[in-house]
Amino acid sequence: MADRWATFDCYGTLIDWNAGIRLELARVFGEGRADELLARYHELEPELEADGSRSYAEVMTEAMRRLGAPTGEEEGLAGSLPAWEPIPELLQACSPPLGALLRGDGSRPRGARARRGEPLPRRRAGPRARAQLGLDQPARRAARPRADA
Hints:
The protein is mainly alpha-helical. It is about 40% helix and about 5% strand.
């Protein structure tokens, strides 16, 4: 029997996107403003992605500028991605090793780990990845459309 695969968005599904962003916002702006700025970040992100001209690192950096990050802190959010943690319940629920098939602009961390003590498989993209992994059709695909996907 062939392996069955399910594909889904890594950040926000495997990795706790909101917690990662909020943690960096709290570091830069203080705990008291983190929730307010997280809500504002989620308004800014789609605006900055709309024309498709920015890499995701550029989107995050510009969002930090617009949120009023101090000089020298604008790139902190993009730089914090490798430290973002997986959703705790996910690691408890998944017994087989997890891997990531990432598409995007290359700004996402190559060194992300599933925090299970195992490195994620090497980064691959699109049709080449499906061929190399022997995937005919994903079992299910669920991800929000993104300008960098």
